[in-house]
């Protein structure tokens, strides 16, 4: 990824294992000796760009799913370039991903500027050879095709706009092979962040309510197990559809806002259900509205659907600030669900950003290995983000205390606290307090005194 938010220069995040650990839920890469990791964690100080690494993956997914169906044909490309420079629009942005879909390894990427798609390419690998499916460029906007891509190639090309991806158009036209990769971006790459809590809750509740067919027991039972596993005192969920009048009122508000500001207000989703959380006490079973629960309980419930679906389907889940509202033990346990081959038999992957250093220590229930740890740092001169792995350092998983070394600054990626600024602040606070005290009027009467500021 290049030129996305604070990622001005090319950065790479790899989930290829550099060490072999039989107890991890690793999976082989077809036609290679490589194995992929089940978990990768990104550490770094606030504002160092951790979230932007995940957001680059999110934006790539957004472009694949939306460039043809939703982007304004004359509106250019709604990208997020690095803006702390004199001419942000002069530099293109590039996104590239190497992934395995239905047993086939693909290399897909594209380059965009504010107006159009400058380049797009898709290759697949067979018997160790890289084979072209299609390539387009600014000089040759009509894609050139490899002989391994069949189907309605020219018809799709005729529908292609300068600001849409060929992959997006092909999926909309029902192309079988390219549609499989498109569906992977839609269903195989999932995202969880604070901004999409309502949609995650809706998804979890929809899974929980499934009653028809054999899928009911395979979904609801493990959801309930995970709900009780967290030791939050929760027994069950009670779910009711929102009243029709409430739904209509919510939609009227959204419509009015969009009309007032010209569509600049984005509402991803609205609560479709009234959710209550059941607790068992010595006096019986009582329910609380989900809004009355702690933020940690709400976060865990909202994560249940994406976590369970990822584990059952072997998909990728990206979580921003995993530790934001979860107890360290609970965050540790969630990571363990993906790390363990027993609970992750289909090769699901968890990529998350965090400040929780305890996951690096020997006391963690799920201790991360050195090839699973990444860091972000922001350059003090130009505010750009650098992403780098712990494997850049000489580390021994068994003997080295990674938590202690990280917190002591051995790997960088820690906030710099300027002690001079703190000393000056102390002096100013003391001076202000002294001046305030000097301005007080004190009256003594009968041994009592009162200060009037």
TrEMBL record:
This is ATPase AAA-type core domain-containing protein. PANTHER family: ATPASE AAA-TYPE CORE DOMAIN-CONTAINING PROTEIN, ATPASE-LIKE PROTEIN. Pfam families: AAA_21. Residues 430-453 are annotated as: Disordered. The lineage of its organism: Bacteria, Bacillati, Actinomycetota, Actinomycetes, Kitasatosporales. It comes from the Bacteria. Residues 39-360 form the ATPase AAA-type core domain. Residues 441-453 have a biased composition (Polar residues). InterPro entries: ATPase_AAA_core (IPR003959), P-loop_NTPase (IPR027417). One of its GO terms (molecular function) is ATP binding.
């Amino acid at each position: 990824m290049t030129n996305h938010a604070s990622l001005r220069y090319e950065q790479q995040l790899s989930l290829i294992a550099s060490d072999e650990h039989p107890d991890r839920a690793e999976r082989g890469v077809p036609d290679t000796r490589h194995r992929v990791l089940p978990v990768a964690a990104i550490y770094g100080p606030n504002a160092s760009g951790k979230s932007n690494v995940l957001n680059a993956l999110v934006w790539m997914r957004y472009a694949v799913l939306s460039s043809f169906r939703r982007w304004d044909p004359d509106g250019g490309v709604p990208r997020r370039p690095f803006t702390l420079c004199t001419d942000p629009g002069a530099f293109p942005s590039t996104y590239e991903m190497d992934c395995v879909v239905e047993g086939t390894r693909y290399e897909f990427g594209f380059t965009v500027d504010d107006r159009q798609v400058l380049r797009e390419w898709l290759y697949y690998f067979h018997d160790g050879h890289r084979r072209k499916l299609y390539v387009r460029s600014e000089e040759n906007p009509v894609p050139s095709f490899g002989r391994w891509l069949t189907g309605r190639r020219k018809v799709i090309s005729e529908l292609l706009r300068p600001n849409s991806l060929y992959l997006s158009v092909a999926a909309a036209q029902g192309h079988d092979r390219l549609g499989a990769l498109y569906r992977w971006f839609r269903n195989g790459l999932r995202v969880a962040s604070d901004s999409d809590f309502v949609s995650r809750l809706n998804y979890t509740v929809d899974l929980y309510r499934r009653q028809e067919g054999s899928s009911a027991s395979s979904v609801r039972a493990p959801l309930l197990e995970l709900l009780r596993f967290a030791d939050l005192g929760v027994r069950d969920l009670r779910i009711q559809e929102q009243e029709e009048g409430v739904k209509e009122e919510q939609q009227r508000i959204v419509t009015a806002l969009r009309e007032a500001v010209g569509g600049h207000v984005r509402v991803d989703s609205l609560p479709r259900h009234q959710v209550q959380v059941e607790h068992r006490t010595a006096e019986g079973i009582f329910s609380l509205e989900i809004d009355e629960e702690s933020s940690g309980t709400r976060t865990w419930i909202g994560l249940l659907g994406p976590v369970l679906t990822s584990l059952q389907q072997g998909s990728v889940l990206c979580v921003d600030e995993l530790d934001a509202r979860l107890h360290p033990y609970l965050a540790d346990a969630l990571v363990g669900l993906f790390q363990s081959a027993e609970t992750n038999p289909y090769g699901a992957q968890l990529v998350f950003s965090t400040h929780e250093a305890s996951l690096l220590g020997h006391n963690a229930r799920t201790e991360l290995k050195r090839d699973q740890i990444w860091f972000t740092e922001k350059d003090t001169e130009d505010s750009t983000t650098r992403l780098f792995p712990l494997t850049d350092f000489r580390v021994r998983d068994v003997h080295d205390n990674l938590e202690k070394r990280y917190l002591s600054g051995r790997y960088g990626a820690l906030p710099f606290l300027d002690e001079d600024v703190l000393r000056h602040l102390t002096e100013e606070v003391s001076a202000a307090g002294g001046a305030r005290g000097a301005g007080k009027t004190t009256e003594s009467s009968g041994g009592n005194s009162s200060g009037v500021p």
